[in-house]
Write a structure and sequence with these properties.
This protein is α+β, with helices and mostly antiparallel strands and 218 residues long. It folds into 2 domains: 176 residues, Alpha-Beta Plaits, CATH 3.30.70; 37 residues. The chain has a 5-stranded mixed beta sheet with strand order 2-3-1-4-5, with helices on both faces. α3 links the parallel β4 and β5. Keywords: DNA-binding, Transcription, Transcription regulation. This is DNA-binding transcriptional regulator, CsgD family.
Length: 218
């Protein structure tokens, strides 16, 4: 099984160096998330795009969700297309792989590039997945930077009192921003998607936690 992912920066023609540098940093983080997979490949290419492959089925959907949580450029949202197919990994250079699954992933991405209500796509995605991902898009796009930080820290498993210390806020402020972020709904959607796809996300969520911790230590 191979899970593919293409992430594209929306409106990248107007993006400055900081935005593109952050995409390169995102590439580095995602590489740590898939390092333990039997097969993986992550590459930042064409200036505004990330391409990833993983041998873990549907892993790339959750990579996309976590990547968007760590992306703080709301004027340049990430558009994400994922796909899982029952195929073997490429024998040669993954960047030159022309399998139909990669073409299907890109075609699905093209269909949402100009959408204002959906940041996630997958070939043949059923409505039972389209709708929660549309809601997920609304949640993520509606967060303020502080709400995004609080939601990321809470999703990584950090206690509220520790979040308050890191952000130099009192606990009631953290609680209020978590509520406004709709972080609880976000967690429920991720749990639903993992159950729907039969995915075990513990390892990936552990790597996401490490990425969040690195962000706030830097």
């Amino acid at each position: 099984m191979i899970s593919s992912l293409i992430i594209d920066i929306s409106g990248s023609s107007d993006a400055d160096k900081e935005v593109l540098d952050d995409l390169r940093r995102m590439e580095t983080e995602i590489k740590t998330w898939v390092a333990d997979d039997d097969f993986s490949h992550v590459n930042h290419r064409m200036g505004d795009e990330l391409f990833a492959l993983s041998s873990v089925p549907y892993n790339t959907l959750f990579i996309a969700i976590y990547a968007k949580l760590l992306w703080y450029h709301s004027d340049f949202p990430l558009k994400c297309s994922y796909h899982t197919a029952d195929i073997e990994p490429p024998d040669g250079n993954p960047e030159q792989w022309s399998h139909r699954t990669v073409k299907d992933t890109r075609e699905a991405l093209e269909a949402i590039k100009k959408s204002s209500i959906q940041d996630f796509a997958s070939p043949g995605m059923p409505d039972e997945i389209v709708i929660p991902l549309m809601y997920l898009t609304d949640i993520l796009s509606g967060m303020t930077p502080l709400q995004q930080e609080v939601a990321s820290l809470r999703l990584s498993g950090m206690p509220q009192k520790d979040i308050a210390c890191i952000l130099d806020k009192n606990e009631s402020t953290v609680s209020a921003h978590y509520s406004k972020s709709r972080g609880r709904q976000l967690g429920i959607i991720i749990t639903f998607l993992a159950a729907r796809y039969g995915s075990r996300t513990e390892a990936l969520s552990g790597h996401f936690k490490e990425s969040v911790e690195r962000r706030f230590k830097s």
